[in-house]
Amino acid sequence: MVTINGVPRSKANKEANIKLKKIYSELGINHCEECGYWFGLSFHHSHKRIWFYDKDPEWLGSHEHTLLLCAKCHLDAEISRERTKELFLKHRNYDIVD
Ligand SMILES: [Zn+2]
């Protein structure tokens, strides 16, 4: 089993999602941050999961490293690193350096 700091990876992902749902709920973010739509909402991470496992797995569940996006905006971001960088700069003032 793959573990992160002794915690199984699947459990770490699940815990991060629970944490994110709480954070976004408290911030009142319940729609796509880019287009305002609400269909197929999910969290888009600033980096691939492996990057978080190498740095700090806690960041998987942080507001700074995630965006709430609809299915369309999430797909656009998934297929383009540049698009992801644009979105994080715009919505988090986070200038991603790979
Ligand atoms: Zn959207």
Strand content: 5-15%
Strand-pairing-aware structural class: alpha+beta
- Give the biggest sheet: 2 strands, antiparallel
Q: Give the low-pLDDT segments.
A: none
Chain-averaged pLDDT: 94
Taken in chain order, the helices and strands follow as: EEHEHEHH
User: What is the rounded Rg?
Assistant: 13 Å
- Number of structural units classed as domains: 1
Got a strand count? 4
Shape: globular
Q: Alpha-carbon distance between the termini?
A: 28 Å
| Ligand kinds | zinc ion
Helix content: 40-55%
Number of helices: 4
Oligomerization status of the protein chains: single chain
Strand order of the largest sheet: 1-2
What does this structure look like?
The chain has 98 residues and is of the alpha+beta class. The chain has one domain (3-92). It is 47% helix and 12% strand. It contains 4 helices and 4 strands, in the order E-E-H-E-H-E-H-H. It has helices spanning 9-27, 49-54, 71-79, 81-92, and strands at 3-4, 7-8, 42-45, 66-69. The chain has a two-stranded antiparallel sheet. It has a two-stranded antiparallel sheet with strand order 3-4. Helix 3 crosses helix 4 (81-92). The relative contact order is 0.17. The protein binds zinc ion. Zinc ion (ZN) binds at residues 32, 34-35, 37, 69-70, 72-73. Zinc ion binds next to helix 3.
What would a concise description of this structure say?
By secondary structure, this protein is α+β, with helices and mostly antiparallel strands. It has helices at 9-27, 49-54, 71-79, 81-92, and strands at 3-4, 7-8, 42-45, 66-69. The structure holds zinc ion.
